[in-house]
Amino acid sequence: xxxxxxxxxxxxxxxxxxxxxxxxxxxxxxxxxxxxxxxxxxxxxxxxxxxxxxxxxxxxxxxxxxxxxxxxxxxxxxxxxxxxxxxxxxxxxxxxxxxxxxxxxxxxxxxxxxxxxxxxxxxxxxxxxxxxxxxxxxxxxxxxxxxxxxxxxxxxxxxxxxxxxxxxxxxxxxxxxxxxxxxxxxxxxxxxxxxxxxxxxxxxxxxxxxxxxxxxxxxxxxxxxxxxxxxxxxxxxxxxxxxxxxxxxxxxxxxxxxxxxxxxxxxxxxxxxxxxxxxxxxxxxxxxxxxxxxxxxxxxxxxxxxxxxxxxxxxxxxxxxxxxxxxxxxxxxxxxxxxxxxxxxxxxxxxxxxxxxxxxxxxxxxxxxxxxxxxxxxxxxxxxxxxxxxxxxxxxxxxxxxxxxxxxxxxxxxxxxxxxxxxxxxxxxxxxxxxxxxxxxxxxxxxxxxxxxxxxxxxxxxxxxxxx
Length: 468
What we know:
Radius of gyration: 28 Å
Shape: globular
Oligomer: single chain
């Protein structure tokens, strides 16, 4: 006689009883409680045992049979099928020295000095969570139709208004495409431009993920040095005047923090217009300029329609949103829309609508003002403490650059620091080659709370002293 099958049913739950039975038996099979070949009670007997309708158990058994977990026959009854056992697969560690190893190291956290993420202390988590919950409910109650692949019109309108106010960019919402962060915008832009096998200027040092993305797009990268005025445009004109693209961070150069001078902005835009080249502007910090007001975006000076502006909410709100945007030149807007529709549609509507509400009600601008004050205080404290112990430290955007002697093992220092709850970034990783690389550590300002700066710096300086 078949032993009773013990299943716990919650009759007050919203989950249908048939689904609860299905899940309970499935879990018992997958955990090994019900071994291959084990006999199950008939659906009539189990219904009587559980005190439910026969049809309820029958539905559960049909789902299990469709999933090839059980098999029923008139002669032998219902049994768990014999299945080969499959070992549980674990993610393999990235190959040492590979891009993914570097990616995981640079994005690990949370930890003090981590770059690329905003402070948790200033993030309006409760408010944004409430708005997202409301947006999810609204999304669930709307008809089941495909959303606009360019992104929700409400968010595109708010971004257009914000860009006009804060970044000096005049654009129509139809020129804005919502993307999955900056990387989604970069991938979309490179796909639309279709510049495979063409030369492209890339800042040196520059964001490693951008460099790798350009390599994957089969561009020939021409590394252009950076100085106190930003990317050296004259160097690019001398060594690669026939390039088809330049990718720049003109607001605050990543990672050294310099602002592209007006003279170089003009030279860059003139070159793009005369050569029919394109410029991708990575406005990764938006208006988070800690000292004074941020300079207008490069796209605000563009009269020839050659600049593709990419921004995101990763540094101003949280990278967990995976929300960014592209401002396409008017002549390319339809091509960007087609590429988004076919290859890279915008993220789900709920997160977009919540962000639109957050901006429309004025919370975003207030959040930025609070954040800038907090970061400015943290940056000053970090710079003051380190400058008293070493002369080789400068503030660059939302990071302090702690310069190290030539040949210092900055990557080894960063890895050693990670074992102590810190996440400084190796500066040498941002250079195109070891020959051009300078050694240093990038210390994120946003993730340096005032009360933790002193002990963290002391521990970091001890590690540097031991390894250099």
